[in-house]
Amino acid sequence: MSGGGLIRACAAGLFALLALGGCEEASRTALRGLELSGNVAALPPQLVDRDRLDVMLPARGARARLGPVARTGDVTVWQTLDGITLSMRRGLLIATRGLGDDLMSAEVDGLLALLRGAAGAGAERAAGPVPHIRSRLDGEDRTEFRSYQCTRVAVTPEAGLRRVEILCVSPQDRFANSYWMDAAGTVIRSRQWIGPASGYMESTWISG
Amino acid sequence: MTRGWKTTVAGAMGAALCATSAMAGETAPRIETGYNSYGYPGMIDMPVAHSRPDGELAFSISDFAGQTRNTLTFQLLPRLSGSFRYTRLENFPLSGGTVTNYDRSFSVHFRFADETWWRPAMAVGLNDFLGTGIYSSEYLVATKTIGERVRVTGGLGWGRLGTSGGFRNPLSVFGDKLETRPARDTGRGGKVASQQFFRGDAAFFGGIEWQATDRLRFTAEYSSDAYPREEPTAFERDSQINLGVTYGIGPMTDISLRWLYGSEIGVQLSTALNPKNPPNHGGREPAPPPVLVRGMAPGAALSWGGHLAQEQGSDDADHADRRLAAALAGQGVRLHGLALSDDRARVEIENLAWPQEAQAVGRTARVLSRELPPGIEHFEIVLVSSGMPVTTLVIARSDMETLEHDLDGAWKSFARARLSSPAGPVAPLDTRYPGFEWGLKPYLLTSLFDPDDPVRADLGAELRVLFEAAPGLEFGGALRKRVIGNLDESTRQSNSVLPRVRSEFNIYDREGDPTIPDLTAAYYFKPGENLYGRLTAGYLERMFGGVSGELLWKRTESPFALGIEVNHVQQRDFDQLFGFQDYSVTTGHVSAYLELGGGFHAQVDAGRYLARDWGATFALDREFGNGWRVGAFATFTDVSEDDFGEGSFDKGIRITIPLSWIVGEPNKTRYSTTIRPLLRDGGARLDVGGRLYERVRPLHKPALQRGWGRFWR
Q1: Distance between CA atoms of B138 and B224, rounded to whole angstroms?
Q2: CB distance B457–A19 less than 8 Å?
Q3: What is the ipTM of this complex?
Q4: Which of B21, B182, B187, B562 could bridge B251 with an S-S bond, Cβ 3.0-4.6 Å?
Q5: Looking only at Cα atoms, what is the longest distance across chain A?
Q6: Does residue A10 register a pLDDT over 50?
């Protein structure tokens, strides 16, 4: 083997790949080429009331306190200072934005029914399975739906709250969410699945 | 308070450079299909019948006995891959002595049958069917998995792959002609050598692969390649058995060590990425503002009406314009025009940040729901590019309010939006024009495949300015200063018999510093409902200046477009400043564009080229939903192969990578590169900036629909 020739030719090949940076589109966007961030600013949260939500992402080692920036029907949009939002329908996560690999939307009517059932007298009734559908974007920005069947696997009293565990299973994956509800059926604490990139989030509601 | 929720840009770029990991959880085969020393799916020197995942773009370097092969392979379709290879052959026999030879070649590999429990996967392939033919060969190959970790392969090779253990071509039952392989008329290279395909002696090859662990794979193969050209000058061949071991050092990168032909040690490094798997899970841009539902506003603070009430009498519509413009600017969108009437707002916008136009529309509609008076029910959003109104979307405000948290909100909102081609002109705000922008950034210029030095490059700084005097009227230019590089070392003289419109590029490289790569006045306009026009004058590109006119016809919902372009240009001085040389030419093309579906785009340009030759360029690109593009093109003109010179005709591959794919942040910048085996004078097209099709197409219905998943993001 000839060392020098190999290195030269290898360098040639590698460079051919790196040279992909060769020419940039000569258009007005080129003027912004190196402004990696700052194209889009994180909005300072415009809070609509004094409630807060403390959220932890154990898989990322991150925690944040969020405030409500919109309440539409039974959906609350919670936002961090640096522009990440979580949308919750009656305390159940239906969307994230700004996290990366975001949960685009989710249908949680069945899960809400399971929680209501747990709050009622006959906790044994209606333990599922109920449908739960989530959507996200794939690597080519196409919407991808995934359908889960969810069952209530346990209802246990814990620290004055009722803890409900729900197991959701799809052909590809599964997750187990936990919800702590007070006597009125309000979700006070939760541990909910976001997705493979973010893992679970743990949330605690702090009433304003 | 949320430190750690976002990784840094540097980290993201690092992750991107280290290739992307495969999506977890999908059906990963227990036995990895590797790339062989020629860079196509195979074992060591021999092929296998399987393919790599769809869309994968791989680069491999292999070396043994001074035979270095650099290969770029693209899995164009699930069954079809294509490779471009640049080889350095030491001790290559030539006219009695030996030389170091540089060669370029193409390969295609087509899997026509999938593996089932009783049948092997089967594939057919062609190697070096265009170039000078050193690696010219064809094969038919079958591969069967046995158990979970062993795979056996057997096949029949022709040409080079039929040189060891060859026998009479079994295909000769179809005709005696197939018994002999005609010598290739190597001449200028570049001709498709179809008269050779599957002719001459054939030979068996085969091999076995054992995936010992998830990362470690052992391979043994019997090669049917006798290396008829390279032996004995490059190496001695003692055996046809090759042995190899491959170790995966990353999810998409592996390294191989081989014992070849009983006499030589070989190494290979292969790395790949897949445009379908962005390193950042599709972006970490700040969340959009939530839609503000009318009647649910918690008081005056958030609504426009309330705002005006607070500052009663202080101002009028001007203030509203400024407030809306500021809110949109924060979302990467520039407000170009605004008109309110009854229950309708006409809002002209320019997308400055988003790779998908749909996301700019979504962010705009969210902002409008927060900023416009409650009486406005319809948002008429006009997408403006270069001062031209390209597409109008009418979105009902009530749909924004009801679909924001809907499971299928993306598709429902697209289905309810009404798209059309705007009829009237734009109505810009007083503050929009004139506009001035400038930017300073690095540039990289490369020159590949010169036998004296296969890679040369210049790195420098580029100052670019843009002055927009009125809608569509743009004055722009750039100034480049080299900082470091060796492009000026090339002394190779052009031997072209055609007008030297491109082949003296190295003189431009040598004599230009600093340079003005382009300096133009351009006017973009919309002469009819589905018509777009461009007039450009000045220094159009680094080698030519003059005037250029273009007209494009494209309907917003149509996958088809037609264009015509006419230019009269004169060759610029080598120093790329203000002077001209004597050569001038009228050049132009009629272009047809077609979206074939599945992300494939075809383009045909027919007309007259820079060297006054007449012909047509055929191009096929695959575009991924995230903006990646990989494509190939070829140009055939009335220049004879002899006059064209080495390569016989102009051809190449091109790749575009969106910056947003790498860093995961909103950015419209895209990096493009074109790799030509040779740059010569025949079939050379003017490289004028601002061509209309790529300015207009992202704003039309098919592209908006494809990207609409980002509407609510």
Answers
A1: 12
A2: yes
A3: 0.85
A4: B21
A5: 82
A6: no
pLDDT at position B93 is 87
Query: Distance between the two ends of chain B, CA-based, in angstroms?
Result: 23
CATH code of residue A118: 2.40.360.10
A139 contacts in B (CB within 8 Å)? Answer: 23, 274-278, 282, 624-626
Closest CA to B245 of B293, B279, B202, B211: B211
For B306-316, the pLDDT digits (tens) are 333 333 334 55
- pLDDT at position B596: 93
Per the CB < 8 A criterion, the answer to whether B631 and B653 are in contact is yes
Instruction: Tell me if B282 and A137 make a contact (CB, 8 A cut-off).
Output: yes
Residue B352: predicted pLDDT = 92
Q: Please identify every stretch of chain B with a pLDDT value under 70, giving residue numbers as ranges.
A: 1-29, 131, 184-191, 282-283, 296-317
What gap in Å lies between CA A126 and CA B55, rounded to an integer? 46
Q: Give chain A's end-to-end CA distance (angstroms, integer).
A: 74
**A5/B518 touch (CB, cutoff 8 Å), yes or no:** no
| Residue A66 included in any domain | yes
Which two structure tokens, joined as six digits, stand for B372?
A: 């416009």
Helical residues (DSSP H) of B381-511, grouped into ranges: 397-403, 409-416, 505-511
- Whether a cis peptide bond, with omega within 30° of 0, leads into B559 is no
Chain B residue with minimum CA distance to A195: B281
Whether residue A88 is contained in a domain is answered as yes
Q: Are B62 and B84 in contact (CB under 8 A)?
A: no
Structure tokens at A20: 């992909």
Across the interface, of B64, B287, B624, the residue whose CB is closest to A79 is B287
Å from B673 to nearest chain A CA? Answer: 5
Which domains does chain B carry? 37-184+194-273 (2.40.160.40), 300-432 (3.30.300), 435-470+472-494+502-686+695-703 (2.40.160)
Q: Which 8-state DSSP code applies to residue B496? A: -
Assess whether the previous peptide bond of A129 is cis (omega < 30° from 0). Answer: yes
Asked if the peptide bond before residue B232 counts as cis, ω within 30 degrees of 0, the response is yes
